[in-house]
Amino acid sequence: MYYDIREKLQKLRAINIIIGGRGIGKTYSALSFMLQQPEPFIYLRNTDVQMQESASVFGNPFKRINRDQGRDAILEAEKRHYLITEEKNILGYGAALSTFSNLRGVDLSDCRWCVFDEFIERRKLSFKQFDAFAGFYETVNRNREIQGEEPFKCILLSNSQTLQNDILAGYGLINKITEMIRNGERTYTTRDLYIELPDVEISSRKKDTANYRLIAGSGAAREALENEFVYDSFTNLGKQPINEYVPLVMVTANNQTYTFYKHKSAGTIYAAARMEWNCKRYDADQYLLFMHDIGLKLTEYYIRGRFRFENYEAKIFVENLLKCG
What we know:
The chain is an alpha/beta fold. It folds into two domains: about 5-200, Rossmann fold, CATH 3.40.50.300; about 240-320, no CATH class. The protein has eleven helices and 14 strands. The protein has helices at about 25-35, 50-55, 65-70, 130-140, 165-170, 175-185, 200-205, 210-215, 220-225, 285-305, 310-320; strands at about 15-20, 40-45, 75-80, 80-85, 90-95, 115, 155-160, 185-190, 195, 245-255, 255-265, 270, 280, 305-310. A nine-stranded mixed beta sheet has the order 3-4-5-2-6-7-1-9-8.
């Protein structure tokens, strides 16, 4: 009835992204599995404030596991990191991604696994999440594979809050997950990556509980029970016949380059990750000039619903560029 990570062990890769409804057992299952391993593991959250809360009686992520399994696992603060202990035995380590750069020289070769809980947040983080995560992974993994060992494995867990996430963007997964949603696919696997959008019985059972009877059909209910990305809009997506458009301007920002095209007759704008050299170009350091010359006009097109996007990544690029998201 609940999500069980043990059923996925043969599928798990170096990076494992599991995005599912609320309260289906993702964290419970992953942490239960970690506590059964002979080696220490890493418990990761985005910020140190979140880690501090987890290291309290109030926010202990092992609380339910302890009650169900007769354990006494806790998180304890130790200088710039945290220890996962049980009766003074060290079971693992905890850290905040936002401050992990301070720990880059540490040896974590004794760890095989990491659980990164609630890696997607709707609020804007104060640090570059993907860069921080890539640095974290390199610090822990080091040269394991070169030395013939298996790679360090990370399990990234989240509810379906939004696809506008720096780690998903950094790994180029936003369009892939959008495609999975559109096609009703639940899993995707490559040599180094596993993605799952779980569908488990507990979500259906929760529909007939007090809270979800009261908010039935709401965005919060659809996110929690149906695993819908209700805060993302997938309208006006899809490749357009480029011969019906003329290139208007090419813009580079956040290490991405997009061309904005104008339709020859319909008066719509199309954004696509294409290079066009026969139009005005703006580099990453020319944002203010871009906004002065044409950005405000493009914002008006967006507000009036006259934009078309090659895919969801293109839509996110436009919204971030024009500050319209």
